[in-house]
Structures are given as structure tokens and as C-alpha cells.
Amino acid sequence: MDCEMIEPLPAPCLDVVENLRAVRGAIADACKPVGRDAAGVALVAVSKNNGPERVRAALRAGHRLFGENRVQEAQGKWPAFKADHADIDLHLIGPLQTNKVREAVALFDAIDSVDRPRLARALAEEMDHQGRRLPVLIQVNTGEEPQKAGILPRDADGFLRECREDLGLDVRGLMCIPPVDDEPSPHFALLREIARRHGLGVLSMGMSADYGVAVAFGATHVRLGTAIFGDRRALLGTPIGG
Ligand SMILES: *Cc1c(COP(=O)(O)O)cnc(C)c1O
């Protein structure tokens, strides 16, 4: 996966390729002490706020699994890439307003942030309408933060039953974003326990700062932005998608 072997790229793109390689190595290192196979940890490259040239670098390096947190931004960037690469797997990882459900179901390959009954109902209806049954994850607000999206842990059992049994959603697992100032491990452990109770296989947890810990707690998907694409704050002033 040497960049020169494909074709020369501008310097920032070379960093993306190098970062992908480094992150895969770090995931493998985190797997070893807990006896996990690194192949069981999918790397979701979070490309929000990054322009097409960095995404293209990741695509050229063979990466296909991406996450975006805003429907509108993703609509500006992804249709062209998807036209070129049929095997892209694009996940919505951010809050979804019900008035954007139609666009989200049309563009994304998975919705990882189903966080409330009203959204779950709107998604089920729209997926029926479009004949597109996307896999989904339920986002759990493990830190019970008022400003954060996600179903509260005490409501998770009922919500999961509604999503699966009443609405027929294809629920694959759970997602969480621990509070920034907390030790993340109790949050990862709580998510793992709720998933276990419901026989769910997918745990999307761990971001650039804590993915090693998440892997130790059983993450099957880690969502990395900064570790792959660099500090997004350095991109402020760069037109989104430009
Ligand atoms: C931005 C974002 C990430 C990636 O965050 P980094 O700290 O840059 O790795 C992961 N998950 C969600 C839901 C995000 O919005």
C-alpha cells in the first residue's frame, strides 16, 4: 500500500495513507493483550470536515468504510465517490433530524445513530418506501448527558424491542460516545453489557483518543477522524467539501 506504487499524491494525502497504516498497527497492538483478532475490528474513517482530496487518498489506499456526521455535508461529497467505487460503505454517525430521513436513507449504507423512537419510526417508514433496508445501530447515551444524543441506558431495552419487533429495523448493534472528561471504560463496559443482553454483535465505540481502550472492551467498530485525517480545527476556514 505504498503511495508511490499507485501514483504520486500531494503531501497531506500521503499523511492520510501513512496514518491509516499506523492506526491499523495500533489496533493490532491493542488486540494482542486481549487475545482478539484485529480482523474483528472495523475501522470507520470519519471524514467529516475533510475535503475530497483527503478522502480520495484513503480510497486510493483501498479504504472503503467511512463515517460522516451530517447529511448535507455527505451529500456534497459522496455521490461522486460512490459512482466511482460501488463497494463504499458509508455510515451516518451523527444526529439525524426526521426531515432529513429521506436523503439519509437514499445516500447512506448504514445509520449508526438511531437515538429516539420518533426517528426509528420515520426510518422504518422511509426504508419501506425506498425499498432499502439499511443496517442500523442504536446510539446509547451512556453518560446520560442532557445535551448528547442517544437513548438512556434505562430505556434501551424497551427501545430495542420496539425497533426490532414493532418496526422491523435491522438492528445490528450499539454505538456510544462517552463524555469527554470521563474515563471511557465504564461506558464501553455498559454498552457491551446491553449488547450482550440483546444478542447484538456490533459495538461501535472508540474514537481517536480512546480506541485502544475500546478495542480491549470488545469494540467491533472504531470511528477515527483525527487519527487518520489530522486535526479538523486546522481545517476551519477551508470550505467544507471544497
Ligand atoms: C467526529 C466523530 C468521530 C471521530 O472523532 P475523532 O476524535 O476525530 O476520532 C467519531 N464518532 C462520531 C460520532 C463523531 O462525530
Automatic annotation (TrEMBL):
One MF term from GO for this chain? pyridoxal phosphate binding
Keyword set for this entry?
A: Pyridoxal phosphate
Q: Which InterPro entries is this protein grouped with?
A: Ala_racemase_N, PLP-binding_barrel, PyrdxlP_homeostasis
Tell me which SUPFAM superfamilies the record gives: PLP-binding barrel
- The residues covered by the Alanine racemase N-terminal domain are 36-232
Q: Which residues carry this modification: N6-(pyridoxal phosphate)lysine?
A: 48
Alphabetized HAMAP family for the sequence: PLP_homeostasis (MF_02087)
**Purpose:** Pyridoxal 5'-phosphate (PLP)-binding protein, which is involved in PLP homeostasis.
**What PANTHER family does the record point to?**
PROLINE SYNTHETASE CO-TRANSCRIBED BACTERIAL HOMOLOG PROTEIN (PTHR10146), PYRIDOXAL PHOSPHATE HOMEOSTASIS PROTEIN (PTHR10146:SF14)
Q: What is this protein called?
A: Pyridoxal phosphate homeostasis protein
The protein's organism comes out as Rhodospirillum rubrum (strain ATCC 11170 / ATH 1.1.1 / DSM 467 / LMG 4362 / NCIMB 8255 / S1)
